[in-house]
Amino acid sequence: MDLITWKMRLLVPCLLLAIAANCASSARILAVLPSPAKSHQYVNQATLKALAARGHQIVSYSPLTLDKPVPNYTEIHIENKMAAGGGQMSLEVFMSFLDASPVGGAKLLWKYTDVVLGNTFKDENIKKLIDSNEKFDLVVLETLFTQEAVVAFGHRFKAPVVNVHTFGSFGPVNSVSGNPLSLAYIPDYSFPYSDRMSLYERFLNAYSVLSSLHYYYSTHLPIQEAIARSAFKDPSMPPLVDMLLNTSLTVTNINPYAHYSHPNSPNVVPVGGIHLSSERKPLPEALKKFLDDAKQGVIYLSLGSVVPENILPQEFFDNFINAFRRLPYKVLWKTTISITQLPEKILTSKWIPQQDVLAHQNIVLFITHGGLLSQHEAINAGVPVICIPIMGDQPMNAKFYEAREVGVKLNFNDLSEETIYTAVTTVLNTTKYKDNMARLSHLYRDQPNSPADRLVFWVEYLLRHGGAPHLRPASALLPWYQLYLIDILVLLVATALVCILFTYFIIRKIYRLIFVRQKFEAFSSSKKKN
């Protein structure tokens, strides 16, 4: 046997072993993600694509599909009535969000359970999944965004659960994961506060978070539990709260180096910016020319995909147009409305490649609704902002811009030609906004590893260690009165009361003894005199 033949025979089994090892490390991952919100699905899809790129097999049930197919990524469509309607809210719902008090804002969110879950458990594909004999190694869900019932898929397939949380700090996420609530310096997700709160703000913040958690456990979770038990019809299913507490890992859409600093327990991993692309795609020719020719710079305006522009009054659009007429900058405006008789320097489009546009050297300002994905993209690109918050965490994100002095806030109800013009000139004529955003952008991008790498490591860590229950802190399982030392406080107060009462009775006894003795001596003295 010659040397070459011997080497070839040795190489074949080595290759087979390598292939077998790769197959063994490739997990089959189920994702059930019924949310109709595009911004949420962008994070969910980026999470799954990162795992698929690693070689894991993804089976995703969602109302929104990928822009283009991805290897190792199988999509199964499920219906959601809001997604089917384009994902845009009605004017009534829109105004309810604008007028909502931030106190206990999560309660308003939980009222839209039917919108988020939609017809999920009535969908034929979901019914087939529940009744199937499929095998999965891991389940990925967005379970703590008013769809807690889906956590039962973890129990159904006896697989660890990864929860994807697509916005910032949220009371239920912290409570379920065992994370500190940090009431003194982390605002509730709907509050327009920074991490430096006044006494009054801290009071409202604490009240909002704690009252929301009370509502969550006493009212919202029982509703979700009824949905889960009706859908799965499994008498062995544990209580919903136990399944939530058994979540192996929560990944949050936060960049820990640029957002408010917040302590995370080991089972909470921030992967903010995971949706960002490291590759710049070529812009459409007409758009590229519009941006390249803007010697004074370009203002980019986008209020996201949820604002019901089709039913907003013409005055809303006229305020922006008239303000832009007075400015020397070109304007790129993402809008679904066809606006006639626009100045040449204003270009509108129903779709804009936002990351690639923000990366263009001529973009000088981003007017945004304050969504968290837009915040990641603006900071990553180093573009100062004007924020017009509408709902959810957007007011808090707007305050973040102000607190870091990288932008200013405009209230939607205060929009006028003058307020828009003043806000634009304030940001673009004051160098601190651009300079501060450049520094923040540097902090944002200076990370030891990428969000995708962090995600993949910890997911594979779960797979290697059977769900890694050792990462879950005991704080997630403690009753609230033990977690916040209420039992110790009660014990101390009770002890203090016992000591006070004991001292009182001792003093009273001594006083009575002295008083009786004095009376007796006085009586004896009087008797002797007589």
Short recap of the structure:
The chain has 530 residues and is α/β, with parallel strands linked by helices. The protein contains 21 helices and 13 strands.
Question: What are the main properties of this structure?
Answer:
530 residues, alpha/beta, 6-stranded parallel β-sheet, 11% strand
Structural summary, described in words:
- With 530 residues, the chain is α/β, with parallel strands linked by helices.
- It has helices at 3-25, 38-53, 81-84, 91-99, 105-110, 113-117, 124-131, 152-156, 171-177, 199-232, 240-245, 285-292, 314-325, 354-358, 372-381, 394-403, 417-428, 431-445, 451-464, 480-483, 486-529; strands at 28-32, 57-62, 73-77, 138-141, 161-165, 249-252, 268-270, 298-302, 330-334, 346-349, 363-368, 385-387, 407-409.
- It has a 7-stranded parallel β-sheet, covered by helices on one side.
- Helix 16 (394-403) links the parallel strand 12 (385-387) and strand 13.
- Helix 2 (38-53) crosses helix 19, helix 13 (314-325) packs across helix 17 (417-428) and helix 15 crosses helix 18.
- The radius of gyration is 30 Å and the shape is globular.
Strand order of the largest sheet: 3-2-1-4-5-6-7
* Category by helix and strand content: alpha/beta
What ranges have pLDDT less than 50 throughout 5 or more consecutive residues? 12-24
Give the beta-strand count.
Answer: 13
Rg, nearest Å: 30 Å
Largest sheet, described in full? Answer: 7 strands, parallel
